[in-house]
Amino acid sequence: MMRQLSSMKFAAWELHVFLDTHPGNCEAAKKLDEYRKKIEVLTKQYEDAYGPIHETTNQASRWAWISGPWPWETGEEEDDD
Amino acid sequence: MFVYEKRLQYPIKIKNPNPALAKLIISQYGGPHGELGASLRYLSQRYNMPYPELKAILTDIGTEELGHLEMVGAIVYQLTRNVSPEDIKKAGWDAYFIDHTTGVYPVAASGTPFSADSIAVTGDPIADLNENLAAEQKARLTYDNILRYADDPDVREPIKFLRAREIVHYQRFGEGLRILTDKLDSRNFYAFNPSFDKKKKS
Lengths: 81, 202
Description:
The complex is a heterodimer. By secondary structure, chain A is mainly α. Chain A is built from three helices and no strands.
């Protein structure tokens, strides 16, 4: 699931950076919007299952935030997709 | 304001430690073409950028470089996990080990600690953007050189990702430079420094 979320977030980031120097590109802006909607859904699913990835996540328990693995440790949960 | 996101930009799961390789890759953590210098360079240069596109691109690429710093740190950390002092000596990592054990310290492959001498913030956007184009190429060639020595796919894949990002950033900085020069005096881009002399009407 993290792999799927990361690839969508990467696509969104790439479009975001592209739009910095092409702010009038409607096609890229539309694609970015589509990715953001998918990311929102997937982030919620991921956080419900594995704990928060943002310090602003609402339902986050303190224990879930401090729990490993941290990103530099063995990695995310074993990919289940 | 910066907020941490608890994930890496690209996954890193290295099964086999290899301190000899860590000794080379750490250069992209604290070396002259590394990610620490990149993030500091862009995030410091942005204050003097004259146009919205340029402020945005330096902020966003500078932020992404912090994510890359984290990735390189994770690679070094994982390459030196569970190694014995004997392994470290065999790998030629012992001189580093004496001062830092298996901590991740910003240093070049040659052993020189990180220095702001390796970056420039000139206050002149033409000079800074040209510096950044060169910096992205220098980072790219360092990753190319790392790939000459890395045969573990667990290491190669994230390094190839980072290398590709340098090329994309180079492209974006090129566009930034074009946006800048389009707004300057077309007969002489260097007639004035748009960040410093902007109040004088040319």
